[in-house]
Amino acid sequence: MIEFIDVSKTFDSVCALRRMNLTIHRGMTTVLIGPSGCGKSTLLRLIIGLIRADSGTVAFDGARIAQENTLSLRTKMGYVIQEGGLFPHLTAQDNVTLMARYLKWDGGRIRQRIDELAGIVRLPVEDLDRFPAQLSGGQRQRVSLIRALMLDPEVLLLDEPLGSLDPMIRAELQTDLKAIFARLKRTVVLVTHDMGEAAFFGDAIVLIREGRIVQAGTVEALVRSPADPFVTRFINAQRNHLSEPGGERA
Ligand code: ADP
Ligand code: MG
To answer: pLDDT by residue (tens digit) across 141-161?
Structure first.
C-alpha cells in the first residue's frame, strides 16, 4: 500500500535516507526501529507529505505522493508526531476536531465520532474540555490518538507515541494500542527505538541504521538469521526488554 523506491533524502550535508526501498503492507503493523538519527521520522514525514524526497518515489496505493495529491492523501492518514504535537492554546476537544470542522462536518457527526473514539482510546470525555498542559502525558497521547483517528484514516502513522511516558503508563497504553490496532484493522506504521515494543507490536520489523535498511522481517528472523552483525548487537543491547513489552528503558 505504501512503497519507497530508491528514496534518498539529504538535509544540508546530512544524508537521512540512502536509496531506501521498502513496502508497507495493508492491514499490517510495520515497526520502524533503529538508533536515534537513523531516519525513522524522516520516513514518516515523507509518507505524510511534509517533506519531499530528493530522488526516488514514495507511492500510496500506486500513486506517487506529490504536491497535487498531498492534501487528499492526508485525510487518509492519521499522524501522531513525537511528543504528541497538540496545539497548546486549544482545548483537547478543539485539537481533535480541527480537521473535521475544516471539512465542515456537522456538529452531531463530530459529537458522535468523539464519543466513539473516546470509548476506543479509553479517555473520559470530560478530559476533552481541558488544555493539553492540564492533562497527564498518557492522557495527552490518548487525545493525540483521537485526533489521528478522527477522520477514520486508512493508515495510522505513529512516531514514538509512547516514548515520553513513564513505564507503568507506557505499559498500559501499549496494551490499549495493540487492542485498538486489532479492532480497527488499519495499516499502522509505528516508530520506536525499543526492541521490546517492536516485538510487541510488529507484524513486520524494519531495522534501520544510518538511512539504510539493515534487515526487515519478523523478530524471530532478526534473532535467528541476522543479516548483519549490527542486528545482533542492536538486539543484544536491549535483550532484557524482549520478554517484557512494558519494560523500563535503560
Ligand atoms: P530518527 O527519527 O530516526 O531519530 P530523523 O529521521 O529525525 O531520525 O533524522 C535523520 C537524520 O536527519 C538526523 O541526522 C537528523 O539530524 C537529520 N534531520 C532530520 N530532519 C532534519 C531537518 N529538518 N534539518 C536538518 N537535519 C535534519
Ligand atoms: Mg524521530
So the answer is: 999 999 999 999 999 999 999
